[in-house]
Amino acid sequence: MFLFFAYSFLGWVGEVLYTAVTRRRYQDRGVLSGPLCILYGIGAHLISFTLRDLSNDSWFFLAVFSAVYATVIEWVAGHILGSALVNLMIEENGKKTKLIFTGDIGQPNVPILDDPHQISGADFIITESTYGNRLHEQVDREKELCDVMKEALSRGGNVIIPAFAVGRTQVMLYYFQKLMSSGQLPVVPIMVDSPMAIKATQVMLFNPEEYDEEARTIFKKQGGRLIDMPNVKYTETAAESKAINDMLDRVNAAYSAQMQFVSDASHELRTPIAVIQGYAALLDRWGKDDPEARQEAIDAIRSESDAMERLVEQLLFLARGDNDTQPIRPQLMDLTAVAEDVLREEQMIHPERAFLARWQGPVVVRADPGLVKQVMRILMDNSVKYSGPEGRVYLRVSAQKDYARVTVQDEGMGIVPQAIPHIFDRFYRTDSSRARQTGGTGLGLSIARWIVDRHGGWFEVVSREDVGTRITFVLPLEGTA
Fold first, then answer.
1. pLDDT per residue over 265-295, tens digit each?
2. Residue 320 region by backbone torsions, left for phi larger than 0, else alpha for psi between -120 and 50, else beta
3. CA 353 to CA 348: how far, in whole Å?
4. For residue range 65-112, what is the model confidence (pLDDT) as tens digits?
5. What are phi and psi of 210, to 5 degrees?
6. Residue 267's closest CA among 315, 306, 219?
C-alpha cells in the first residue's frame, strides 16, 4: 500500500515540476506572448490498477510509471474569436514528435481577428477535410458585398445571407458598419436570425481586447461600437425567428410568382407576334397580287392585334393592382341593374345562345360599378366559351343574410377537381381549354379575383366534368361591411 501512494505522490510532483519548467522555458523564448496562448504540461503519468487474486482472496497493487511527456500550446487559429490551433510536443523515451490539431487552418487578413499562427515543422497535422486541397480566394469581400447590396436596394429587394458559419456573421456586420457609417450604403434594417451566430456575436462584443489593430481603432473612434449597431435586430425568441422565416417564405413565393408571371406573359405575347410576322411575310410574298391571301392576312393581323391589346390591358391592370395603383371608386350600386346590362350585352353579342336570368329586386352593395361589371363579363364570357352552342348560361343575383351573391352557371365541359384550386392563377388554363381558339389569355379570373378581394368578397366554385360549372362571387351588402 505504501508503494502505491509513494508512486502517486512522485507522479504528481513530477508533473508539477515539468509544467513549471516547461512554462518558464517557453516564456523565455517568447512563445507565450498572446492572451490566447495557454500552456500546460502532462508528465510523469502514474497509471495504477488493482488485480484481485480470486484463489486466495488477497489484494495486489501494481503501479506503472510511464515516462511520457507532452507540452500543449494553443495558438490563435484565426477562424473565429477563441478558436485554437493545438500544438502537442510529445517526448517519449527520448523521441520528440510535433503534432498539430486544428479544426481550421485559418485565413489571413480577416476583419476583427488577428492573423492565424503559421504552422511549421509539424510531424503530423490532424484537421477536418471539408476545405482540404483548396485555398482561400483572395477577393475584396467588402467591395463585393457593397456592390450586391447596392444592386438589390436599387431594385427594392432584400438580401439573405446564410449564417451557417457563425464567424462570418461578425465579419458581415463589421462590413455593414463600415459601409453604412461611411455613407457608401444607406442605413437599412439588418436582422440576425441564428442562435449560434448571435451568441458568437455577443462574445465578440464583450472582448474588444482581442480585436486586431484596425478593429480596435474603429472601436475607439465609434465610441465603443464596432458591430453593435442600432439598426441590427437580433431574434431573441422562437416567435421572432418564425416570423422572419415566414416573411422569407413570402418573399420567395412572391419572387417565384413574379418570375413565372414574366415567363408566362412573354409566352403569351410571343404567339400573336409570330402570327403577325408570318402573315406580314405572306403579304410581302403573295398578298400584293392575290386579293384572297391579302384579305386573309389582314383579318389575321387585325385579330391578333386585338388579342395583344386585350392581353396588354390585362397585364397593365394586374401590374397596377400589384403596385396598389389601380383606382377603386366605391359607391352605392344595385347589382341587379348591372346584371341586367351585362345580360343585354351578351344577348346582343351571342344572339344564338340561350341566357336565363333570375333576380327579384334591387340588391345594393358599396362597390366600384365598372369593376363589378368587369367581373360579371369575365364570368359570362368564360361560360359562353367553355360550353357548347346548345348549352344554356344562367345569371342569378340574390341576397342571403348579410351578403349579396352573383352566380354564373353553364352546361359546359366542366373542370377536373384537381384544377379547381388553380383556376384563379395567372395564365392558368385547364388541359381541356388550352386551345387558342377559345380566345382566352388565362388572366380573366385572376383579374376577377383581385377585384372581388379588394371589395371584401370571395368566390365559390362548383364544377363537374361534362355537366357544367357554377361560379359565385359574394360581396357584403351595404351596411354590413
1. 776 677 678 888 888 888 888 777 788 888 8
2. alpha
3. 10
4. 344 566 777 677 776 777 778 888 888 888 889 988 887 767 777 788
5. -90, 0
6. 315
- Set of cell numbers at residue 399: 341576397
* CB 473, CB 447: distance < 8 Å: no
Closest by Cα among 350, 343, 466 to 411: 466
User: Looking at this protein, which amino acid is placed at residue 426?
Assistant: R
Residue 209 φ then ψ, to 5°: -65, -15
Helix (H, G, I), strand (E, B) or coil at 463: strand
Q: What values do phi and psi take at 268, rounded to 5?
A: -65, -35
CA distance 128 to 193: 27
Contact 451/406 with Cβ under 8 angstroms?
no
Q: How far is CA 218 from CA 34, 76, 190, 222, 263, in A?
A: 21, 22, 20, 6, 48
Comparing CA positions, the residue from 285, 297, 266, 298 lying closest to residue 427 is 266
* Residues 368, 324, 335: CA angle, nearest 5 degrees: 15
Cβ neighbours of 273 (radius 10 Å): 11
CA distance 413 to 389: 12
What is the distance between the alpha carbons of residues 26 and 28, in angstroms, rounded to a whole number? Answer: 5
Q: Are 108 and 135 in contact (CB under 8 A)?
A: no
Q: Where are the strands (E) in 338-467, listed by range?
A: 354-358, 364-367, 392-400, 403-410, 458-464
CA atoms within 13 A on the CB side of 310: 16
C-alpha cell of 114? Answer: 488577428
What pTM, to 2 d.p., does this model score? 0.50
Residues in the chain: 481
